[in-house]
Description:
mainly alpha, 59% helix
Amino acid sequence: xxxxxxxxxxxxxxxxxxxxxxxxxxxxxxxxxxxxxxxxxxxxxxxxxxxxxxxxxxxxxxxxxxxxxx
Length: 70
């Protein structure tokens, strides 16, 4: 599986975190499809558990731990 670029993931979800939201896996995947994100970004977000993500830093840490960022 190809790995997602953090810059692509960040560009997609940063506005939500800037608003103080804590989106969960499903919400971020829905947004990715809505914004026609590339498959690597969708696959990376799909690696998350179902819990809300409290911050952009936390999202990056989770994706790095899952080995889906390149």
